[in-house]
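Data availability (excerpt). The following record was deposited with the supplementary files.
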Amino acid sequence: MTFLETIFARLEDAADEALLGEVRDGKIIAVTGADLLALIAQARGFATSRGLKPGDRCALLAPNSIRWVALDLALMAEGAIVVPLDPRQVAKDWLGVINDSSPSLVCCADAALAEGIPAGREIALFDEIFGRAPAEPSLPRHHADHDAVTIVYTSGTSGEPKGVVLNAGNVTFMLGCTIARLDQLMGGQSEQESVFQYAPFCFAAARILMLTSLSRHAMLTLSTDLTKLADELKLAKPHYFVNVPMFLERVRRRIEESIQKRSGFAARLFEMARAGYYSQREGRTPLGGLVALNLARRMIFPAIRANIGPNLKALICGSAPLAADTQLFFMMIGIPVLQVYGLTETTAICTMDEPGKVEPGRVGGAVPGIEMTVASNGEILVRGSNVFPGYWQRPAETAKALEGGWFHTGDQGEADAIGNWKITGRLKNLIILNSGHNIAPEPLEDDLTAALPEAQQVVLLGNQRSFLAALVTVAPSANGAGATWPPYNGSGLTPAKIQSALDALNSGLPHYKQIRAFRVLPEPFTMENGLLTTLGKLKRDAIAARYAGEIQSLYEKKTA
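Predicted structure:
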């Protein structure tokens, strides 16, 4: 069976069972399998009335919702190719995707989004699509493995985003992998799983999670307000959910800040417990640290876990490597973090941590059926049924990406003796000093960010320069405009504190890796100001262009 046939069969079996919901006004509004099939039938009737044919592209411009899911399934069931767009992006970004993919139809959540689409495009609003008379549910069109089902555009950290074509075989294979790994996590649990989703469906991993949830005995709750994630999590009480590193870093900082403010016994106990935990992992067993750790496990950690999610079996993290310290932090308080590595071109996943076999700082082994190796330049190469057939209308780039029968990821990494992978950087992000030294910026950025809890982001500079420098952004205020949960006040970030952190970091580095200058920026990089991707990745080229003057003066001042 294809993934769509599996999902439709699951919806029929769960006709009276709530399996998909969204948070509205402090409540979860849920639909059953029968409800979702009815919504899908309505949308399929609309697609037919508009003359949509198999192979036609259809863009979906809307935030996550029950109707988004129904329309996605309906369009694929009719044989259309879904192009998901992110309404949180600036209009020019998703207009570029529309122009590149040339969809027969653009489906918008509301009229406000539709206003940004140029005249001449066929547009349909959700109210129109789902305002039809009820239709009789029917089976989805059968897909061959090579049939395209979606075009997902890359985030475009540098250069233009490319349309990644994924076919039915890619998705069916990947859902088999995710279902098997979640079976391990849940350990044969018979009760319905609770899953939470806040990442937008234009993110390939978020879409895979949604399709996986609909394929198994699960209830998926969709976030509708990123500023209320804490409250939404309390409602959903998930067993697991997918995260990006930026979110988990903020959660960790917020917890640490809260404990520090309490001071007294609780703060001292927490720090002693942390020291005891690290000692225990290193094979040392100081009595005081172990006593503190056991006390914290009874007196402090349960309250922290309950505040994040009382039923959590694991947090799943992808899109970028997570700092080992942050992964250890959550493990210490009793919440495993399972890392996933992959790209849009690999149907979101190549590796997944196995529950109970997590090594902090690494992203697990290649899932069964996927081969991974390293080229002579350190680039990770991937081969398997998860690898996409090509980029939309970009044959030369497709040939380059798939040269030699392997997908060239552009990532650098290494595997240990048991095949557990570590991602060390991106080839295209390499900084090449005018001395000829090549430096991957990500490890140094992570180290400096970890040393500066008040900082939001660190970006390393130095391409074709004589030394490295850094841009440091301040974390948003807890009460500041645009703050997201959990908020963090970065007002304590001073030049002296940054210099002290740099001195400590530089002392253990060779001369060419030492960071010799910095500039503090008053606002963080965000998706709204065009300096972050949807997944929270740095748009390095855009940052360099936006702050070209500051960067130039930074180097001129240092060399004067």
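Summary of structural features: Residues 477-490 have pLDDT under 50 and may be disordered.
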